[in-house]
Automatic annotation (TrEMBL):
It is an enzyme of class 6 (ligase). Catalyzes the covalent attachment of the prokaryotic ubiquitin-like protein modifier Pup to the proteasomal substrate proteins, thereby targeting them for proteasomal degradation. This tagging system is termed pupylation. The ligation reaction involves the side-chain carboxylate of the C-terminal glutamate of Pup and the side-chain amino group of a substrate lysine. This is Pup--protein ligase. The reaction mechanism probably proceeds via the activation of Pup by phosphorylation of its C-terminal glutamate, which is then subject to nucleophilic attack by the substrate lysine, resulting in an isopeptide bond and the release of phosphate as a good leaving group. One of its GO terms (molecular function) is ligase activity. It comes from Nesterenkonia massiliensis. Signal peptide: none annotated. Pfam families: Pup_ligase. It comes from the Bacteria. ATP binds at R62, T75, W430. Belongs to the Pup ligase/Pup deamidase family. Pup-conjugating enzyme subfamily. It catalyses: ATP + [prokaryotic ubiquitin-like protein]-L-glutamate + [protein]-L-lysine = ADP + phosphate + N(6)-([prokaryotic ubiquitin-like protein]-gamma-L-glutamyl)-[protein]-L-lysine. Pathway: Protein degradation; proteasomal Pup-dependent pathway; Protein modification; protein pupylation.
Length: 505
């Protein structure tokens, strides 16, 4: 497919660290808040805005708190990679806004200490949470072919897009640095279950589109990325591999004998020399498999043309990342790829402080890299100091907090914002749009690329004439409304309905 819809769902880690009591002072109320209680605090402004802890917001995305303690943000559907990356980063900014609000609130309620929201994939107790990618693919894609090409790509993708991890020593191995956060937590290649067996590709068939035409491919193996450059390579390379799968060209045969054994083996060998066996008995390193796929993708683009403007940038990054792993010269990518950025940071701290690799301080550095707080998080610190390369700007992220991308999400955002301005109760999901008072007129929008729809316009016209009755609020006005600008109303009633009181006779 030359045009694709993408979405990414991120589950965040949430921690409250009570402050140590000053010497000679009783500890007082400094108990740590359990994560589920903290998550409920965090989501209070969400519930206040949408009267539920599972809502769609005006930028078209979804905020969701399940029974556990990992708040989730699912980006709106995007048809452009940079829109996707900005929309994902907007989710981090929203979580940060909510954390600031929570910090003030719990302090007022007598808890001391700090609240942390982490965009990572493992907590200190070893639990894992995900970063799920969604790709629209044609229904005609042959699934067996898809999995035989995509699985080896995804198993080895960690060397170009992993978030990196400080692994403490245990009875079997020394402390070391691994490519991936998620690799040790995947249990199956392909399956329809997400929770029990954690497959790399999930086959649950909910396309959120015309099911006769499309599927939504659900990839749950990825690490959450902090670096926007890494994100571009992660989604961009996967899209290119999918494009080859869909076109039916031969893509070589790297089908792995044991994908789960391979993903772990590769993750824990930062030299990139680990070999994995493919069906038929040959052995390859992850670099060799990735290089095989990269070369085929380059050939494919030479023959069929580039389908978007970032293809050459993606190829350049992809090549450089493989070169870095193969030669061991990680400085080639230590401003661009999360694992290499983090590895450099961890090594700098270890050298400066003269500590060994299994010092607990380094695990803290690993976590702090993923702190979404732009003043405190270590990725953000490097960003401020100009030590990492970004592909999006802060302005684009700000914009993405309130503005949906140019897909069906734009219709959803407009529908939500207009209905709210008129005080009309409405419900939406990825496909449906309903005014609660008019349940029989629910509009189903199966085309994720659509940016306008006359049925929605006429449904909204029942509420009034937005062009004369609604006024669009400025960003500054919206910032006053709630803990996060993403949870604010775009319009207010400004027409006759909001006119001054009728004169007294
Ligand atoms: N047709 C589509 N093709 C690809 N991605 C889509 C499509 N429609 C929606 N998406 C994206 O899929 C993601 C869906 O996230 P959501 O968390 O709601 O779904 P889910 O994982 O199926 O459900 P749950 O998390 O409740 O199990 C979003 O990021 C959204 O942008
Ligand atoms: Mg989800």
């Amino acid at each position: 497919m030359d045009r694709r819809v993408y979405g990414v769902e991120t589950e965040f880690g949430l921690v409250h660290r009570p402050a140590a009591a000053p010497e000679g002072v009783a500890a007082g109320p400094g108990r740590g808040l359990p994560p589920d209680e903290l998550a409920r605090y965090l989501f209070r402004p969400v519930v206040e805005f949408g009267r539920s802890s599972n809502i769609f917001i005006p930028n078209g995305s979804r905020l969701y708190l399940d029974v556990g303690s990992h708040p989730e943000y699912a980006t709106a559907e995007c048809a452009d990679l940079l829109d996707l990356i900005a929309c994902d980063r907007a989710g981090e900014a929203i979580m940060h806004d909510l954390a600031v609000w929570t910090q003030e609130r719990i302090t007022a309620d007598g808890f001391n200490g700090q609240v942390y929201v982490l965009k990572n994939n493992v907590d200190s107790a070893g639990n894992s949470y995900g970063s799920h990618e969604n790709y629209l693919i044609p229904r005609t894609t042959h699934f067996r072919r898809l999995s035989s090409i995509l699985l080896p790509f995804l198993v080895t993708r960690q060397i170009i897009a992993g978030a990196g991890r400080v692994v403490p020593s245990d009875t079997e191995r020394e402390a070391h640095f691994a490519f991936s956060q998620r690799a040790d937590h995947m249990w199956e290649g392909i399956s329809s279950a997400t929770t029990r067996s954690r497959p790399i590709i999930n086959t649950r068939d909910e396309p959120h589109a015309d099911a006769a035409e499309h599927r939504r491919l659900h990839v749950i193996v990825g690490d959450s990325n902090m670096s926007s450059t890494t994100s571009l390579l992660r989604y961009g390379s996967t899209d290119l591999v999918l494009r080859m799968v869909e076109s039916g060209v031969p893509v070589g045969d790297f089908e792995l004998e044991n994908p789960i054994g391979a993903i772990r083996h590769i993750s824990h060998d930062i030299t990139g020399q680990a070999k994995v066996r493919i069906r038929g008995g040959d052995e390859f390193t992850a670099v060799e498999i990735q290089r095989g796929l990269l070369e085929r993708a380059q050939r494919f683009v030479r023959q069929h043309g580039a389908h978007h403007e970032h293809v050459q940038e993606i190829f350049e990054l992809w090549e450089r990342a493989l070169e870095a792993v193969q030669t061991g010269d990680h400085s080639l990518i230590d401003r661009d790829i999360d694992w290499a950025i983090k590895k450099r940071l961890v090594e700098d701290v270890a050298n400066r402080q003269g500590i060994g690799f299994d010092h607990p301080r380094l695990e803290q550095i690993d976590m702090a890299y993923h702190d979404v707080n732009p003043q405190r998080g270590l990725f953000h610190l490097l960003r401020r100091r100009g030590l990492v390369n970004e592909v999006i700007t802060d302005e684009q992220v700000q914009q993405a907090m309130v503005t949906p991308p140019a897909t069906r999400a734009a219709i959803r955002g407009e529908f939500l914002s207009t209905a709210r301005a008129y005080g009309a109760e409405c419900t939406v999901d990825w496909v449906h749009h309903k005014l609660v008072d008019r349940p029989l007129e629910t509009v189903m929008l199966k085309d994720p690329f659509a940016t306008e729809d006359p049925r929605i316009e006429s449904l909204l016209a029942r509420l009034g004439d937005p062009s004369t009755q609604l006024r669009e609020l400025s960003l500054a006005e919206r910032q006053q409304q709630s803990a996060s600008v993403a949870l604010s109303d775009r319009y207010v009633l400004a027409g006759p309905a909001a006119a001054a009181e009728p004169p007294l006779i």
